[in-house]
């Protein structure tokens, strides 16, 4: 009996057992594989991205420098000192100045360029590559080149100004002029990139909207401002947020624009020192004051959040002007 | 399709103007790189290449302050490693977010999107302290490991995987007894190849270009990335500009090469990403 009973099952279990275990395996697989697949990102990002960002705040509450062995807790002292620090406010004004001078023309030019590219062009890809090529160049390299183009004695820009009868400008020692030169670098790199993003959004606008507008007698300029621009609003907001995040953290361009003895200060009188440069000056060479530098980092972070939010609000408000117009077409 | 308007001669004129503005600084960089230092003082400035490129390159590689060759080799190592890693991990995670069901998927995806919006480079100070603890200061792991994954990469692959891979295909592979890793290898990875290529190109260029973090953590002048070599060149007390420009031209060349070869794909990637984002 037992032999018989034992003799019968061997066929079935050998077929059934692997199936059962593979069933369990596959249940384990479907349950845990997703986590396995996303784990590398969260592990690496957690350690080298999220943790440092949060820890910056902790460091900013301490008197923490390279040489000291203990880091006494000082509460908000770094922040109160910072808010009374004229160099901090100076760098803040520089950063905002460069940001405004660069971003507004950049987005307008990108809109104009996208509108040009959104036509039946010969050699379409060629034109797109031509406007995008600044974006793929090395930032440090281009900053050096622009530093020479904006040179005082033999710079090409001053030479061109001279040709049209204008006085030479000292682009490095004049504060506003240095902002303009740095903005030119930023715009040179990012206008084409933004133009392509706006172009992609323009191509998604249904054609019959323009036909309807044309029947209503809208000119091409009118169509652009009343149809294209309002429909591009989400994309314009996207571009503005990206420009805000990048623009307020500006570092490589102003750092490389300045050379000489103490370039991290952005010139002898800190003409073009941005907040990120100021953070570096304090946190790394020459001061190595990690606590103070971290406080700069957090205030910069707050500034980015505030400016991004304000930009979104302003753009929403501007778009609100489309409301009555929509009513009018009815 | 929605290119409604014909391009007028005026359109082309405006585009030529924009293209000249775009290309001129790059062109001029190569002009100065191929001339002697006299070119810097000439007005009107020269706009055609000269015959001094070889001599400038020789001077550049002989310069004992810039460590330019080391910089080139280091940047190649760093950019290649980071590119392979970002593409690999992004295609894993992107596939999981697009096609697999698991608890917390949407919340975790939101975290990924948030990482794209948060300026993580503001964490450089603790990152620097961390590197000191790991004793990675002045060494290449310091600039490789923190960027082995990017939220942008995961998001991009997730968007592409969502439309490029059909659920039926995955289901069929499961019926044939494929586990998820094998499905990823045999079904997903081949389908993701176009997006992986674009992500790889963008990652390579970004990493090659990276300046801020290497500047903070690689303080040994003898072990720079190529961008740091440029800084050493431009901060130098001598003003041998044709040598400096030769450096900038060589540092830019790999990027231009990638762009000339794959510009169409890069443009496609940027524009598609824009519509979906």
Describe the structure.
The complex is a heterodimer of chains A (330) and B (277). Chain A has 330 residues and is an all-alpha fold. Chain A is 74% helix and 1% strand. Chain A has helices at 2-7, 11-60, 77-83, 86-117, 124-132, 139-149, 156-163, 175-203, 207-215, 220-231, 233-248, 252-257, 275-283, 290-320, 322-329, and one strand spanning 119-120. The longest helix of chain A has 50 residues, at 11-60. Chain B has a domain at 76-224 and 257-276: MetI-like fold (Orthogonal Bundle), CATH 1.10.3720. Helices cover 72% and strands 1% of the residues of chain B. Chain B contains twelve helices and one strand. Chain B is globular and about 70 Å long. Classes of the chains: A mainly alpha (330), B mainly alpha (277). β1 (119-120) of chain A pairs parallel with β1 of chain B.
Strand fraction band of chain A? under 5%
Shape of chain A: globular
Number of helices of chain A: 15
The computed structural class of chain B is: mainly alpha
Shape of chain B: globular
CATH class of one domain in chain B: Mainly Alpha
Spans where pLDDT lies below 50 across 5 or more residues of chain B: none
Stretches of chain A where pLDDT falls below 50 for ≥5 residues? Answer: 1-20, 321-330
Alpha-carbon Rg of chain B, integer? 23 Å
């Amino acid at each position: 009996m037992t032999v018989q009973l034992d003799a019968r099952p061997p066929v079935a279990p050998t077929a059934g057992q692997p199936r059962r275990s593979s069933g369990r395996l596959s249940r384990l697989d479907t349950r845990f594989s997703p986590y396995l697949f996303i784990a590398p990102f969260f592990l690496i990002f957690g350690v080298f991205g999220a943790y440092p960002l949060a820890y910056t705040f902790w460091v900013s509450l301490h008197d923490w420098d390279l040489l000291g062995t203990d880091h006494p807790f000082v509460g908000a002292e770094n922040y109160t000192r910072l808010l009374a620090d004229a160099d901090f406010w100076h760098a803040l004004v520089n950063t905002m100045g460069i940001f405004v001078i660069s971003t507004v023309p950049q987005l307008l030019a990108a809109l104009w360029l996208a509108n040009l590219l959104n036509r039946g062009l010969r050699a379409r890809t060629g034109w797109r590559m031509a406007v995008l090529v600044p974006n793929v160049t090395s930032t440090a390299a281009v900053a050096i080149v622009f530093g020479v183009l904006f040179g005082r004695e033999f710079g090409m820009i001053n030479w061109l100004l001279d040709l049209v009868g204008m006085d030479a400008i000292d682009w490095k020692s004049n504060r506003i002029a240095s902002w303009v030169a740095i903005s030119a670098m930023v715009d040179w790199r990012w206008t084409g990139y933004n133009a392509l993003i706006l172009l992609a959004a323009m191509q998604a606008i249904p054609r019959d909207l323009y036909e309807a507008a044309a029947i209503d007698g809208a000119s091409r300029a009118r169509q652009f401002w009343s149809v294209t621009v309002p429909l591009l609003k989400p994309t314009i907001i996207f571009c503005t947020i990206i420009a805000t995040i990048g623009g307020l953290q500006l570092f490589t361009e102003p750092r490389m624009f300045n050379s000489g003895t103490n370039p991290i200060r952005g010139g002898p009188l800190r003409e073009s020192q941005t907040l990120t440069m100021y953070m570096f000056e304090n946190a790394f060479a020459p001061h190595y004051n990690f606590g103070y530098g971290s406080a700069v980092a957090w205030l910069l972070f707050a500034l980015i959040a505030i400016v991004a939010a304000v930009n979104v609000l302003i753009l929403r408000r501007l778009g609100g002007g489309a409301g009555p117009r929509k009513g009018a077409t009815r | 399709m929605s290119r409604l308007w014909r391009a007028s001669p005026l359109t082309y004129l405006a585009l030529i103007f924009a293209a000249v503005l775009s290309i001129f600084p790059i062109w001029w960089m190569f002009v100065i790189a191929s001339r002697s230092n006299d070119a810097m003082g000439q007005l009107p400035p020269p706009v055609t290449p000269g015959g001094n490129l070889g001599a400038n390159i020789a001077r550049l590689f002989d310069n004992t302050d810039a460590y330019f060759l080391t910089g080139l080799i280091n940047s190649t190592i760093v950019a290649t490693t980071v590119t392979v890693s970002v593409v690999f991990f992004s295609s894993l995670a992107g596939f999981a977010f697009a096609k697999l069901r698991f608890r917390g998927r949407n919340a975790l995806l939101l975290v990924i999107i948030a990482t794209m919006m948060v300026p993580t480079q503001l964490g450089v100070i603790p990152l620097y302290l961390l590197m000191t603890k790991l004793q990675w200061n002045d060494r290449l792991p310091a600039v490789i490991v923190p960027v082995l994954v990017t939220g942008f990469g995961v998001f991009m692959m997730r968007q592409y995987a969502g439309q490029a891979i059909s659920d039926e295909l995955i289901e069929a592979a499961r019926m044939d007894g494929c586990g998820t890793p094998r499905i990823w290898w045999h079904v997903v990875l081949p389908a993701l190849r176009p997006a992986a290529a674009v992500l790889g190109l963008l990652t390579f260029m970004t990493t090659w270009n990276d300046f801020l973090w290497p500047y903070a953590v690689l303080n040994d002048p003898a072990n720079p990335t190529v961008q740091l070599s440029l800084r050493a060149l431009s901060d130098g007390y001598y003003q041998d500009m044709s040598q400096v420009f030769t450096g900038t031209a060589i540092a830019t060349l790999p990027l231009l090469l990638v762009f000339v070869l794959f510009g169409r794909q890069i443009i496609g990637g940027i524009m598609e990403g824009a519509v979906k984002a």
